[in-house]
Write a structure and sequence with these properties.
homodimer; alpha/beta; Helicase, Ruva Protein, domain 3; Rossmann fold; 2 domains; 12 helices; 7 strands
Chain lengths: ~300, ~300
């Protein structure tokens, strides 16, 4: 999808928040904000929001001299995820429909984006996760099950590092030996990289690859040929997070998008209020469910 | 006070909202957003937020070709204000301390900034106003009474058109013959102009002047010499709204600021949460109350 005018002030604010997390240097904060403003004043709005976010975080890494500013935050998130895993596994063992329950847990994990803030504690995350598990859920669970059962190869596109431990639960429900988990090719915000995926043990459960890109989404043109081949060959793509939805929406490909609706622009696009947990098929999947399929790239 | 980095994305968002209110033309929305981004990328942050807001709304009027885009909204607000006046006068007649009660009503009126939206109805405003009247109030009521009693000349700086009818209640409590009400010199957003003040009947209660400026605040350098003379000569300035606070804070002058805290930057500055109704003396006033005086222009 394209970048909406509403996305711009939001991305400027995110840039300022990120600069403050990365450094206490106020002149750096000002430089990054002015840089984003100048770039955005002339930017092409056709590419998706992750294109602007990619540029913001590249500049932030350059200006701060930090290759992976969120490394400590990601490690802490992963640690908290492991601490919560046993209790989720217990819930899952009691579930009537473990595939849907695991999908819901993986989607709920998507809310702990906030976990990148040092102030977020394990009990904050537990509370957030539990309330996400009871949040409004709009999902095409039957279609998802059929797609999973029918797929010989599944490409699972991860999102934030902090939710990888929750992704384990869903990956474990997918047909063994058919799943490839893909992460970002380089650090960007708190998005998952190979190191994060290994720390969550996903390398022991699935083939693990990276996409070669440092965008907080999946910009196919920016990914390696090897990743694109996997993408093209997959019978089913499971795409976690709003960034993957923003960048892949409109692709003619069987995709299930799993994410928490985090902003008014996406809420309007998918026709569901912010906070909704979505399990949404791409238009290519078709659907007999009550939730709309992804609309392609027409506004 | 200076413009904080946090103010910039907020002002970009406000520019987009304003452009959408003024015109359905999406290319105009995009042009105004790009214009603000480009200007903000290089702007001096020392002047107060109303300086950027002034520029945004000048450009919006130029680009849309509308001299007073909010005229209809302001007229509707004033009409709604008149409809609510009898019930507020009844409440006021029963008040033990009418000066403070009228000040609270005038401050509460400051929340109906939203009234510029066509969707806002009289019952929305009534509800907003009633909840504002019971909102947390931090006020130096005793100091305010002393300042009012001791002043031979009072300059009352109005804010939005929609609250002028509520300002009547407070002006009526001030010493007759000593009050000058000042409004903006030209239309900007839904701020009060001479026409709005006359529609609220303030010309029958006080001397009415305009400040010659089209900023949504009081930028003294941008005001007419006649206004500045009134400002200099006043024993007491009563300044309504956040814009007047942002632009006058730091002036060495006896001022009482009456406003609803509307954003996190101001909340942090005044040490009170958003939504608080403030009756706050400038540092020059001194105070024996429990609320801090305005901090001057040091962050």
């Amino acid at each position: 999808m394209k970048t909406f005018l509403d996305c711009i002030p939001c991305l400027v604010r995110q840039a300022l928040d990120a600069a403050r997390r990365v450094s206490p240097d106020e002149s750096l904060h000002e430089r990054i904000v002015r840089d984003v403003l100048q770039y955005a004043a002339a930017m092409d709005l056709q590419p998706s929001p992750p294109v602007l976010a990619q540029r913001i975080h590249r500049r932030l890494r350059q200006m701060s001299g930090l290759r992976d500013p969120y490394r400590a935050a990601k490690a802490r998130q992963t640690e908290m995820g492991w601490a919560m895993l046993p209790e989720l596994e217990t819930q899952l063992a009691a579930a009537v429909d473990p595939l849907t329950a695991a999908a819901r847990m993986a989607i709920a994990g998507n809310v702990i984006d906030l976990g990148a803030s040092p102030a977020v504690t394990a009990s904050d995350i537990r509370r957030t996760l539990q309330s996400a598990l009871s949040a409004p859920f709009k999902g095409d669970a039957d279609g998802f099950r059929r797609a999973v059962d029918g797929a010989r190869s599944i490409l699972y596109l991860a999102d934030n590092a902090g939710e990888l431990v929750f992704d384990r639960l869903l990956v474990a429900q997918l047909p063994h030996g058919r799943v490839t988990v893909a992460v970002r090719g380089a650090p960007v915000i708190n998005d998952a990289t190979l190191a994060d995926a290994r720390a969550a043990g996903l390398n022991e459960m699935a083939t693990l690859i990276d996409n070669g890109s440092d965008a907080p989404g999946t910009l196919l043109d920016d990914c390696t040929p090897a990743f694109r081949e996997r993408f093209d060959q997959a019978d089913l793509v499971i795409a976690k997070g709003q960034g993957n939805y923003e960048s892949l929406n409109g692709e003619n490909k069987p995709i299930y998008y799993l994410f928490t609706v985090k902003c008014p622009v996406i809420a309007q696009r998918v026709g569901q209020p912010p906070g909704t947990q979505l399990l949404m098929p791409s238009r290519r999947m078709g659907s007999r469910s009550t939730i709309p399929t992804s609309t392609g790239d027409e506004p």
